[in-house]
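ESCALATION

Customer reports they have been waiting on this structure for their group meeting. Please prioritize. Original submission:
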Amino acid sequence: MSYTSSQVQRLLGVKNSVLRYWLDEMPLIQPRKDHFGRRIFSGRDMRLLIRLKYLLYERRLTVEGARAELEKELSGDWQDLRAELDAVRSTLLDLYFLIAGRQ
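Update from on-call: job pushed to the front of the queue and completed.
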């Protein structure tokens, strides 16, 4: 699936200037341009932008820190990420069984 800039802005809830700044600072995100010169974002671009927004707004990393984190995640160094995901899964299962036990 592909997305236009306006769709990406609406889905992420960011302004055009923010999106353009992110694109300037994140060489990992490379939308193609259509024959009219409009940016067209791939599903991969969209996933990276969602992850970037999370790193910037939720984890409160700097742009440089978020770029380093994305590069690390994409480089194949998944050990730390795998451990974090396992911890989240465990917490979610605990919460599920806690809620299910109350019903």
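Sent to customer with the following note: The first strand starts at residue 2 and ends at 4.
Escalation resolved.
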